[in-house]
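ok new one. same drill as before - structure tokens go in, u give me an amino acid for every spot. 458 of them this time. try not to just spam alanines like last time pls lmao
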């Protein structure tokens, strides 16, 4: 994990997220505390629990983006889940332990990709040798004295280094120069197709059964191969993938993946307010909401979850929860859950000034994205300052009059603004288009004046 200070973490988050300084400080401290925990004596290390966070704020203000960027900074396994997708055990729906299994899958994929990158050069070298063997099968050396296996001359030949084959070296040069790219070769490829097995059950705990069946069946049936005729570059790629798979130590991958989940994993629980029972509503879907909290509690507190990769402990996984909390309050969570989320941060609604900054300042600013998209059609967009002000003003006013969806409103406004231009762009190659306040008014005037229309269009 990179040893970034809280100040450096906030500075990195500032490159992509506008405002919300309190939330950035909280997650920066939580991330730094992970590094601090690794530095304390081992006997104390296991006693230090992560300080889980609840982010409170309306949709579209940056809650998810903060958590996602934090995980990317820490190079940690990160999983975003909607709390409303889970149900109490005994009801139809996903069981809460599945989030740890999903996180484990992500971690295993991450470590496997890193290992594949590490062995890439060696795999490519072996793949090249195998491809040359296909293009030019090695000649069998026939010994004159086949009857005497202990013939000294034969032993001498075995000890001697094989002499370089000029034809093989010439083929190697042609292969590396790309002069064999149009040539076809016959390649034996592993057939990984398996019988379809699907398990349907109302019990969330049985959702892993499909994977277990597949693993079991995979061990019962011998590996099969099928022959395909492919071009040389594709053959080289297929062989390199096979060799990288053979070079990867899966035991090491699994061990590292489990360690990353247990020590560095981050789970972002969105819509946590949706699993809080509304006062007076104790029927229908309301029945299982408090049950979901009780099922989540052992995961957040620290328990052991069985996955296809083995046992995974959740004691030091960082949980970041978020919700709008329009109808309920964080204090409506069951007391045990409240105690497991000691840090609470309120995110502020976005203003017109924030929208202007979101459009222009971040590395992935919306204006930058649209300019780059249309540049692929050789159309040069130029946004004036007054146009950006006008876009931000319209988005802010529409949010006030209809549902406040935060910065996501900018996406709808920008799509509507550039709809005609995006449609005509392939026929406008080499044209420079200036987007000013008049252009914005012309495209959006009718919609912003008609409240009912803006409710549907924007």
């Amino acid at each position: 994990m990179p040893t970034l200070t809280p100040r450096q973490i906030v500075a990195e988050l500032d490159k992509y997220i506008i405002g919300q300084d309190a939330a950035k400080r909280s997650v920066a401290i939580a991330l730094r505390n992970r590094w601090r925990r690794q530095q304390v004596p081992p006997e104390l290390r296991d006693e230090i629990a992560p300080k889980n966070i609840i982010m409170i704020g309306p949709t579209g203000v940056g809650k998810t983006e903060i958590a996602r960027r934090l995980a990317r900074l820490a190079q940690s396994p990160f999983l975003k889940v909607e709390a409303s997708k889970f149900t109490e055990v005994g009801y139809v729906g996903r069981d809460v332990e599945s989030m740890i299994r999903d996180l484990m899958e992500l971690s295993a994929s991450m470590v496997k990709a890193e290992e594949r990158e590490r062995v890439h050069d060696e795999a490519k070298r072996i793949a090249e040798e195998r491809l040359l063997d296909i293009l030019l099968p090695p000649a069998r050396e026939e010994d004159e004295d086949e009857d005497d296996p202990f013939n000294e001359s034969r032993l001498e030949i075995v000890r001697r280094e094989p002499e370089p084959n000029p034809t093989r070296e010439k083929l190697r040069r042609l292969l590396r120069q790309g002069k064999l790219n149009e040539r076809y070769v016959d390649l034996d490829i592993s057939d990984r197709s398996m019988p379809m097995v699907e398990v349907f059950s109302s019990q969330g705990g049985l959702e892993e059964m499909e994977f277990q069946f597949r693993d079991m069946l995979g061990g019962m049936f011998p590996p099969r191969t099928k022959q395909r005729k492919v071009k040389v570059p594709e053959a080289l790629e297929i062989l390199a993938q096979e060799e990288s798979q053979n070079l990867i130590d899966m035991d090491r991958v699994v061990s590292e993946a489990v360690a990353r989940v247990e020590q560095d994993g981050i789970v972002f629980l969105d819509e946590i307010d949706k699993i809080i029972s509304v006062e007076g509503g104790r029927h229908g879907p309301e029945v299982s909401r408090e049950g979901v909290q009780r099922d989540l509690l052992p995961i957040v507190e620290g328990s052991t979850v069985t996955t296809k990769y083995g046992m995974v402990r959740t004691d030091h996984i960082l949980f970041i929860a978020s919700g709008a909390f329009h109808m309920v309050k964080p204090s409506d969570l069951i007391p045990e859950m409240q105690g497991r989320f000691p840090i609470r941060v309120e995110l502020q609604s976005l203003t017109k000034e924030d929208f202007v900054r979101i459009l222009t300042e971040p590395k992935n600013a919306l204006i930058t994205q649209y300019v780059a998209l249309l540049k692929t059609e050789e159309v040069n967009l130029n946004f004036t300052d007054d146009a950006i002000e006008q876009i931000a003003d319209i988005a802010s006013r529409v949010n006030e009059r209809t549902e406040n969806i935060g910065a996501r409103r900018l996406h709808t406004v920008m799509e509507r603004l550039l709809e005609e231009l995006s449609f005509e762009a392939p026929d406008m190659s080499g044209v420079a288009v200036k987007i000013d306040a008049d252009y914005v008014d012309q495209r959006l005037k009718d919609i912003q004046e008609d409240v009912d229309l803006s409710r549907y269009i924007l």
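The chain is about 50% helix and 10% strand. and btw The chain has three domains: 6-112+260-346, 120-137+154-247, 352-448.
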